[in-house]
Amino acid sequence: MSRRTDDGDGSRTRAAGTGARALGTAGLAVTAAGLLANGLAYLAPVLAARQLGSADLSALATTLGLIAIASVPGFGLQLAVAVHHAKHGHTDTHRATLLTAALCGSALIVATPLLIATLRLPAEALLLSAVTTAAIVVCCRTLGELQGGQRFVRLAIAMGLLAAGRYGGVLVGLLLGAGLTGSLLLGAVTAALTPIGLAALTRTADPATTSAAPPLEAGRIVTGCAAMLAMLVVSYVDLFLARQLLSADDSGAYAVGTVLTKGALWAPQVATVLALPRLAQEDRFSRTVALAVTVGCGALLILGSTLAGDLAFRLAGGPHYTHLGTFAPLFAAVGALYAVVFVLLNGAVATGVRWPAAPLWIGSVLLAAVTLSTTPRTIAGLLWPTLGAAMVTTLAMAVRTWASTPARSGRSDPAPRTAPDRG
Hints:
Elements: H1 2-51, H2 54-70, H3 72-88, H4 94-110, H5 112-119, H6 123-148, H7 152-175, H8 179-199, H9 207-212, H10 218-245, H11 248-266, H12 269-280, H13 284-307, H14 309-317, H15 328-350, H16 358-373, H17 379-404
């Protein structure tokens, strides 16, 4: 009897070790894919600065920014699909995906006359941007299915393919000297081909599960889109205010500081990616782990910025900004707080909380109202209210999460529909 018990304990230990290794592999893969995507996004304007004139460089940077903004609903779609898949299994979401993609692409086309007049962009650049945006949104559906099914290694591959399709054509066009329009054309072509490659990664769905699962409601997609849009706004509102309130030199310096903010915000995002399917199943233990990893990562970045603030600004913007090193831990703290907000926001969407992004919108409006009416027009005068808004928003999200969590004791550990995979 004792031997049988030992064997059972050993089997559970080996299973736990195998699961931990698989999750570790998945985490490394998703992290690598995120670094690849951010690296390609950074490389595009750097290479463009060496290949294009100033006017075309500005147009390309603005166009890539418009694509990033117009693609936000796609990542809201990914969130909605991932949560629905984690709860109910695979569902046919082709129609919802095509509708979302068409709306995002059409929005750019409809806004073309206005964007031509206000941003002085060529019409062909905006039309190509619409194609790229629609393709990105279509790809986000695949990302959501893989994430919701906890197929994280394949999710990482899909993220890498999407990054390559999104920026690869533009980079090749720049290297070939194709100019602004030619580079955007190659980018649109590679982006349009990317969904075909990603489709192969989701051909493992069970038809029986597909037919039994309830359809994905449009309201869930709208909620996911609003949440991702709120996260984008709250993480950029201070940068927009700096452009409005500060001098040109101080605005540029503040923009360099926000590089540290974005680094602290997105560095621990892998924890949220891995935890989301379990959050959809109301697994409080996974939420606690994701928050612990995020808080720990943020604390390390704040500490590093405190000890080496001059170096942080040198790496972010060059030697001309090292005198701002004392502000480095404040910029990092803003990003670290919003990283916690991102975890809580995903958890709120996953568990069906009403108006999950409301604290983010309120925090953004309050920050704008305070800074526009009372803040001194200095870097410190904007940075301190921004940090205060981040603290208030984080506290509001934490209180609402605590208030909306069912009173249960012990660890919630529902059986997942799909175990984390290795490949």
